[in-house]
Amino acid sequence: MSDAPMISVRGEAVLEAEPEIARLTVHVQSQESDRRTALDRLTERNQHCLDLVKSYGEAVEKLETGGLSITPLLKYKRREGDIRAYRGTVQIKITVADFGVLGELVTRLGDLERTAVDGPEWDLRRESEVYGRAARQAAHEAVERARSYADALGSRLTGLVELSDEGLGRPQERPVALAAAYGRAPGGAEAEPEPIDLEPAKQIVRAAVEARFTVSPPDLDPR
What we know:
About 25% of the residues lie in helices and about 40% in strands.
């Protein structure tokens, strides 16, 4: 092991960036006294919702069905076999890349019968260049900090012993419910709702590294 003196430092970077995508979670429901009717209604409403989302073309980056359930609702919670209705639910997950259509899409989804919308949850893509930029800035800061300490000691950096990445992180935005729990009632107004104004939330990306450098012998003579 080298006997050369070493300097250990930590480099950090905090970047603020515009979001690249917005995620919505849509819950489509039906509730009928007959199981088959509840399933048929759910199928119709789910297809209507999917058709609406697909009509936005490439503005929607991803469309996924999260799950489906048909649940019997009992008249009395403690009595088995006494069913008053059946409730169906489908969860749909939507990733929107074009924020120009987001406000319109949210209000149109919220206007569908028995449809709930949660979002938007603003985010960066996994492969976003912002993460790489933050990592590079953290590494550069570690080098500059180590060089500053070496200069103060009358030394210079001679080599890198270790660079440890502490990972990238950012705070998560909590999604906001933007639509009524069940959309508009049957027989409601047919006019399209006004798009809601949405302001994308800034994304904060953090990166940190720990580094150790070898340095030339310091000049510790008093000046």
